[in-house]
Amino acid sequence: MQGHPTMSKTATESGSDHHNWLALSIGNSRLHWAWFKGEICKQVWHSPHLDQSAGSKLIHAWNRGELWCGGIEFPGPPEFEEIAPNPPLWIACVVPQQLALWQSYQRFNLITLADLPLLGLYPTLGIDRALALVGAATESGWPVLVVDAGTALTLTGADPEGRLVGGAILPGFGLQLQSLSENTAALPRVTFPTSLPPRWALTTAEAIASGVIYGIGSGVRDFINDWKERFPTSAVVITGGGGEILLRYLQESASEMAKQAIAMPNLIFSGIRCIKQQQSG
Q: Is-catalytic flag, 128?
């Protein structure tokens, strides 16, 4: 296990803070939020990245204790009547430009690779991938393989001792669809489908969706097969915005594999909660 250095903190948590706190995962495309009461995740939502002006205005209001009032619109839909102003904010970030907006918040806590109870990490491993592993292991134990179907689709696995075995990264469903429309002259923009397209399509749009979904799906299935040969008792956890359609693909093409897969759409927040517990004692 790597060490447990203190995270960057600028304020001491009071007793009430343990009952109300926020987690923020800054992803490639969006901000992913979770509101916790103690160890219970009460609500998850998503919002666009903030520009410098909006971020500065929001954090200035937060630091004045106007997180839930004062005419400042919070970037999300929940109702927060039970939350006191200025709750601790625990952040995992893969977009440095967005992270800079939050560092002036007085209750800012940054999670880094050095904080995680994982072995064999390399310096450029994404904190989102590492936290997903921690969250999956917290729920299912080691060994574990995490398939995160986000903007980038990643596969990340750890062995029975909690040591990183490795993984793979490829463009996710939406990114592949976008790339085809932006880099070809005649192919149309195809929106992310909510159900499986026909494998043998008779329209251009469905042919694009088929190629992307079945192409990604077959690659993921091959990786899972290889992983299960190495670690037969391992859990396989699927998360991310494209996780639902990936699971549908597995149900159609590899039903036994799909039965063993565990869907955890908010997996990274389990990892953040685990690290907060560790750091808060």
A: yes
Q: Is 112 annotated as a binding residue?
A: no
Beta strands (DSSP E) in the chain are 21-26, 30-37, 40-48, 89-93, 108-110, 144-149, 152-158, 164-171, 235-239, 261-263
**Residue 139 to residue 20: CA distance in whole angstroms:** 22
Is 222 known to sit in a ligand binding site? no
Report the pLDDT value the prediction gives residue 65, as an integer from 0 to 100.
75
Q: What is the pTM of this model?
A: 0.87
Least confident of 35-44, 77-86, 142-151, 179-188: 77-86
Q: Is 161 helix (H, G, I), strand (E, B) or coil?
A: coil
- pLDDT tier for residue 15 given thresholds of 50, 70 and 90: very low
In this structure, the number of other CB atoms found within 10 A of the CB of residue 86 comes to 20
- Catalytic one among 51, 115, 128, 159? 128
Read off φ and ψ for residue 42, nearest 5 degrees. Answer: -85, -35
Is 51 one of the annotated binding-site residues? no
Above 90 in pLDDT, residue 173? yes
* Residue among 240, 247, 241 nearest 221 (CA): 247
